[in-house]
What we know:
Pfam families: CRAL_TRIO, CRAL_TRIO_N
Helix content: 40-55%
Radius of gyration: 23 Å
Distance between the termini: 85 Å
Shape: globular
Low-confidence stretches: 1-28, 308-342
GO molecular function: phosphatidylinositol bisphosphate binding
InterPro entries: CRAL-TRIO_dom (IPR001251), CRAL-TRIO_dom_sf (IPR036865), CRAL/TRIO_N_dom (IPR011074), CRAL/TRIO_N_dom_sf (IPR036273)
Strand order of the largest sheet: 1-2-3-4-5
Number of strands: 5
Protein name: Alpha tocopherol transfer protein like
Oligomer: single chain
Amino acid sequence: MSEESDSLRTSPSVASLSENELPPPAEPPGYVCSLTEDLVTKAREELQEKPEWRLRDVQALRDMVRKEYPNLSTSLDDAFLLRFLRARKFDYDRALQLLVNYHSCRRSWPEVFSNLRPSALKDVLSSGFLTVLPHTDPRGCHVLCIRPDRWIPSNYPITENIRAIYLTLEKLIQSEETQVNGIVILADYKGVSLSKASHFGPFIAKKVIGILQDGFPIRIKAVHVVNEPRIFKGIFAIIKPFLKEKIANRFFLHGSDLNSLHTNLPRNILPKEYGGTAGELDTATWNAVLLASEEDFVREFCQPVPACDSILGQVQLPEGPTSDAQCDDSMRAVKSQLYSCY
């Protein structure tokens, strides 16, 4: 054997061991908590997360996945599983169901989740449809700002907007701070027309809300709607039947009253477009953050999807309309509701 191959096989630490001793097997780097002391306390009080039991809880969830869903193609590392435990306040059964729903929702809506990467969504990102404000709110929540008026339906379908939102949520939830604090949504409906609103029918609404409530590990702490026209009554009529009471109670409609908005989101974190003092609304910075994460999303969303029939048969997926006829009937009812708002 050559000297080079010997040097590759033998390190100083290994060479120093006796013949009967073997070095421990290499292990992947373990989980290192990045939470501040204040956030550790908050996680303990609000999420029932006990630092001394954290890894035991993660291992329990990992064991449940391996036993109950052995064919589920998912990451089982500590940091990833913690997202689901935190989202369900360390209830093992609910965390497991959320994890399985997370993967099943992705596989059941290929129009949204296939080839999901920032470079495939440059048109949406450049339109200014969404961004994340640079400052968090007083509770530490990141603020996701959505502006439907920036979308031109003739340029691309509404599912592209949904893809951009999901991409943003995936990036945000990588942060342990966000896992504990949750997010706030600021939706500006200025200029949303009847024709635009009609694209958001019952099928889309049910899918999106089902994912946000039951298929994604994020805590939505509030949804603030501003500049909503009368048409929004029709939009909300579509959404509300699918909302759990807890989430429905977190919707706040401010109209054009920015003072009302400022009682929840202070002016010093808002751009001047919303009566704030944090400068003009910046979309370029968040776009750059997403585009810099291209390789991560390619690894996660652009690989061949394994067979999942054995999984989907067992999963409690958010339900949608059961037939095209029902969808058509629902859409007619929705359009009637939208027209009545004028």
